[in-house]
Design brief:
The chain is an alpha/beta fold. Helices cover 32% and strands 20% of the residues. It is built from nine helices and nine strands. Strands 1-9-8-5-2-3 form a six-stranded parallel β-sheet. Strands 4-7-6 form a three-stranded antiparallel β-sheet. The longest helix has 18 residues. The radius of gyration is 17 Å and the shape is globular. The termini are close together.
C-alpha cells in the first residue's frame, strides 16, 4: 500500500486521535469547496468515533449542512430500519439530527434484488453528477471514507469477486458476502470510488495489524486497488500499524 505520488500514510497514537484526524481532514475538504459538497460515508466499526465527533458542537457549527450531500460507499441489503444497515447507523449517529433529508442519499434496500438497487443508486449518482459518465477532471465526491476488512476487502469489494473488475457500471449488487454478516450487498465500483478529491482509509486496532501488514507489503487485495484519482490517505493508529513495514 503506497508508492503512488498521491498516496500519504499517517500514523496516530490511538483510535481517539484517529477519529480527530479524520474529522479534521473531512472538515478541510468541506471548507475547500464553496459550492455543493459530496461526502461518501462508510459502514462497519471504523467510522463510529468519527461520526460521534461530527455530532458534537465543535463540528456541527462549522458544517454548512445545506450544501453538503451524504452518500454511502456500500450497503448491506437489509431494511433501513435494521441495525446492520450502514446508512442507518450514520443517520442515527449524526445525519438525521443535522442534515436536510433531501441531502441524505442512502442506497435503497426496498427493491426486489441488490442488482435492482444498484441500478437505482447509479441513476441517483449520475443525476447528482449531471452526467452519465465519470469525468476524471470533475470528481463525483469531495471525500470518500473507506475501511479495510479482515480479508482485505473495502466497501463490498471482496477478493476474487467479479465486482472488482467492473469498469463500466457505477454500482453493482453482490449476491452474497464471504464475511459476516452473510447478507447480500450493494457497492460502488472502483472507478466510482476513485472519483474523489480524497480517499481516506481508517484502519485502527491490533486486530487490523495482520491485514495492514499484507497491504503494506503490496499484496493484491481490493483495498490496494482502491485509489483516488487525486489523493489517497491511509490513516492508522499505532496498534494497527505495529511493526508493519512498507
Amino acid at each position: 500500500m503506497g508508492g503512488q505520488s498521491n498516496f500519504q500514510r499517517i500514523v496516530v497514537d490511538d483510535p481517539a486521535a484517529l477519529a480527530k484526524a479524520a474529522a479534521e481532514r473531512l472538515m478541510a475538504r468541506i471548507e475547500a469547496n464553496p459550492a455543493r459538497i459530496a461526502i461518501c460515508l462508510t459502514g462497519g466499526s471504523s467510522p463510529k468515533q468519527l461520526y460521534r465527533l461530527l455530532a458534537r458542537d465543535a463540528h456541527t457549527g462549522r458544517i454548512p449542512w445545506e450544501r453538503v450531500h451524504w452518500f454511502i460507499g456500500d450497503e448491506r441489503f437489509v431494511p433501513a430500519s435494521e441495525p446492520l444497515n450502514n446508512m442507518s447507523m450514520a443517520r442515527k449517529m449524526f445525519l438525521d439530527a443535522f442534515a436536510p433529508t433531501e441531502n441524505i442519499h442512502p442506497i435503497p434496500t426496498d427493491t426486489a434484488t441488490p442488482a435492482e438497487s444498484a441500478v437505482r443508486y447509479e441513476r441517483e449518482l449520475q443525476t447528482f453528477h449531471g452526467a452519465p459518465e465519470l469525468d476524471p477532471e470533475k470528481p463525483l465526491f469531495d471525500l470518500v471514507l473507506m475501511g479495510v476488512g479482515p480479508d482485505g476487502h473495502t466497501a463490498s469489494l471482496f477478493p476474487g469477486y467479479p465486482a472488482l473488475q467492473e469498469r463500466r457500471r457505477w454500482v453493482v449488487g453482490v449476491a452474497r458476502a464471504p464475511v459476516e454478516p452473510l447478507v447480500p450487498r450493494v457497492t460502488l465500483t472502483l472507478p466510482t470510488l476513485a472519483s474523489c478529491r480524497e480517499m481516506l482509509f481508517e484502519v485502527a486496532g491490533p486486530e487490523k495489524h495482520g491485514i495492514l501488514s499484507r497491504l503494506l507489503a503490496g499484496e493484491d487485495l481490493p483495498a490496494n486497488r482502491a485509489r483516488s484519482n487525486f489523493e489517497t490517505v491511509l490513516l492508522t493508529d499505532r496498534a494497527a500499524f505495529g511493526g508493519a513495514t512498507s
